[in-house]
Specification:
This protein is of the alpha/beta class. 53% of the residues lie in helices and 7% in strands. The strands form two sheets. A five-stranded parallel beta sheet has the order 2-3-4-1-5, sandwiched between helices. Helix 6 links the parallel strand 3 and strand 4. Helix 4 packs parallel to helix 5, helix 19 packs across helix 20 and helix 23 runs antiparallel to helix 25.
Length: 535
Amino acid sequence: MYLEHFGLKKEPFHITPDPFFFYLSPTHKESYASLIYGLKNRKGFISLTGEVGLGKTTVIRTFLNKWSDRSKIKTVFVFNSNLSFKGLLLTIYSELGLDLPDKLGIQNSKSDGPHILPLEDEIFELVNELHRVLIKEYQQGYNVILIIDDAQNMPVQTLENLRMLSNLETTKDKLLQIFLIGQTELDAILDKKELRQLRQRIAIRATLKPLSENQTRDYILYRLRKAEIKSGRENIFTRGALNKIYQYSEGIPRKINIICDNAMVTAFGYGRKTINPAIIREVQSDLEGLPASRRFRYALAGSFLILLAAAGIWFSPYKENVLIGMENMIPREINGKFTSSVQPDAGIGPSLSKGPETEAEHADRIGPEHFLPVDEYFVAAEEGSGEQPLNEQNNDHPRGQMVAQAENIIEESPGDALNEADPREQTDESRLDEINVEPAPRLELSPVNQAIHEELYEIVPSYSGLSETRQEILIRMARQTSINGLLSFEKMLEALEQDDFQEAARQMVHSKWARTVGDYAYDLAESMRTDQPGW
């Protein structure tokens, strides 16, 4: 899905063991060379061990792809190693296409009966016939390899009996090459006392190790080049992102592939051509299921700081002044105007050096004649503080954004919202007949949100049928983008008309607005889908 976006012809980070992308780190090169040496010199037993995800199967498949064309090789690949010794022999017969000895009285290799001979005699006949076949293959120049994957899962009794197969040899060469491929637990199993005879027969032991930090970077760049990335676009991952990948993957190729593939999908969703550490952290959190717990920790830390500040205020001698100042900062609606009782020239409260203010002093200082419209208050407060006034060049300021959004809402509504009654509050019959909708119900919203709510109630047909949670989502989007910006989400609004909240959420996530806003948009989309506030 992201090939064209990054200029690739193939997906570079599949987790399947593809020999095409085989990367020769020093330990991978050593292990690969060990297999070649053991095969060419008919060494018999060879073990290859390593942690999960280091590429053991990739090494084997690369080895088979390279050498099956150059040499006369017949391969028996055992995927399910949890077999009895007789079951292993029957698997070898089946893979080589051999007929079972007549003395066994078994019709085919997948049948366990009827039995004419005791189990020990059956095993003897199977091994004896296999010896005869292997001598014939050797005379014709063929080399037969038995590869046992996940050998750590093979029963100890079966492993102990493998030495019987190692006895199939000529005076010079082994007739059967046995590759034991397993995790690090295999080494511990082979070190058991009851397997000492088998351990002595292992001619070569190879071990895969995780990649170093430099090898991890080279591994990622190597796979991008093998995927035929366009020239000059190899630096998809920043240096910081590569460091994070190594930190999270611990140099294990399978983990590297998973992280890189998910990071490219995430970057494609954001519309970005480079991947930075923030994207890698987000991917790792998703893979480990951490986002919810992390947000909980942040919320808990924030709550603790708020409680600490509240406790400091509560026990402060200026508690009453602070509470009165906070109350006066809350805008109130008086005669159709949003006003605040703060006197900008006088500041929010008296100088702290004068001590706590009495109620009489407060009444003399603050009065109705000092009430100002909320947008004028913000401008006056900025001028009094020496900061740049809120204007078109200062809309990045949070309060400037709120004023600009409020002004946009007022400009889109008929009449002068500061001096006249809002026509939308008229509920006479002629007005209802004209707009053909019911008046918007009054919710417990802030004045600005209430104005947006009433606007959406009239111009978005599906808005009135939404739950309060989903209505609040649209209000939040309108505050981020404006009313007209919200109306540009045509496919999302169409999905809401059909009550298809899954599609509506998808349209939100895939929009340019979502890529700009980031996690906030994803939280709103999840709430749109589930009808459960999660922001």
